[in-house]
Specification:
Layout: H1 2-62, H2 67-97, E1 107-110, H3 111-128, E2 132-136, E3 141-144, H4 146-162, E4 169-177, E5 180-187, H5 209-215, H6 221-231, E6 235-242, E7 245-253
Parallel strand pairs: 2-4
Antiparallel strand pairs: 1-3, 4-5, 5-7, 6-7
This protein binds adenosine-5'-diphosphate (ADP).
Catalytic activity: ATP + protein L-histidine = ADP + protein N-phospho-L-histidine
Protein name: histidine kinase
Main location: membrane
């Protein structure tokens, strides 16, 4: 009897391992597919700023004494370099996703601390735009990856700053409900046209190309935020958006919550 119990336990453990491995392989192949598409797009998107930087450098080479040209060139080269920088940052965030395909263990993450850390990093930008920050933060523990969770927050909060109105407000709240930690990020910005609410999560989608360019956006922030939340068993939803502002909600599995 003892022997057959051992065999049965071993078989069960093997079956569990097989199930985990199948899941990991599925995740990896989905990631692989996404990455290939993404890299194709990124290469294309890199060319636009590089072309304009090169064009200005060529012009300066031809007209080295043209001060007005110099001024425009510095402005454009500056903003296009900013765009390139942001894209490189986002490509790195995408490659960070790969590690989660095989990693099942998750850390106990103190949510409030991570939010405060990200807000601190954005403080400069928040003051520059004359925005007010309101937060209602409660102690909460998520079962998540700290770096990945940080990427989710950085992207959502960065948008709450970028797309806000001058003198606007950013509100951050969090809590725990039904085995999930939730974080809500609200802004008093320009809003997203209702019919585009799903599209904005697609990589490289921007509502207004010109405005996105001014802000240095490549349309990757929301796609990355959602993917990073999903690999951790969470989600990013657009809860409400209109001309008075936008509200996003992140959910992550709560630490020690009974699994459903
Ligand atoms: P980007 O890098 O352009 O900000 P995102 O993927 O983060 O890319 O967002 C996609 C588009 O969704 C943005 O170009 C912007 O038009 C819109 N958007 C995202 N967040 C907000 C927000 N909080 N308020 C208004 N519009 C937003």
């Amino acid at each position: 009897q003892a022997m057959s119990d051992t065999i049965s336990d071993t078989l069960q453990a093997m079956e569990e391992e097989r199930r985990k491995l199948t899941l990991a392989v599925e995740k990896l192949s989905l990631l692989d597919q996404r990455q290939k598409q993404f890299i194709g797009n990124v290469t294309h998107e890199f060319k636009t700023p590089l072309t304009s930087i090169k064009a200005y450098l060529d012009l300066l080479d031809m007209y080295p004494d043209d001060n007005r040209l110099l001024e425009t060139a510095i402005g454009t080269i500056g903003s296009e370099t900013g765009r390139l920088y942001e894209m490189v940052e986002k490509v790195l965030q995408l490659s960070a996703l790969e590690k989660y395909a095989f990693e099942f263990s998750k850390e106990k993450v103190e949510v409030r601390g991570v939010i405060l850390g990200v807000l601190e990093g954005l403080q400069g930008k928040i003051s520059k735009f004359g925005l007010t920050l309101q937060s209602e933060l409660n102690e909460a523990f998520a079962e998540a990856d700290r770096d990945s969770f940080t990427i989710v927050l950085v992207n959502l909060l960065d948008n709450a700053v970028k797309y806000n109105k001058p003198g606007g407000v950013i509100t951050v709240r969090n809590g725990v409900r039904e085995g999930k930690v939730w974080i809500e990020i609200a802004d008093t910005g320009i809003g997203i046209p209702g019919e585009l609410a799903d599209k904005v999560f697609q990589p490289f989608y921007t509502v207004d190309k010109n405005r996105a360019r001014e802000n240095g956006g490549a349309g990757l922030g929301l796609a990355l935020a959602r993917q990073h939340a999903e690999v951790q068993g969470g989600a990013v939803e657009l809860v409400r958006t209109d001309s008075t502002g936008t509200l996003f909600r992140v959910t992550l599995p709560a630490y020690n919550a009974p699994s459903i």
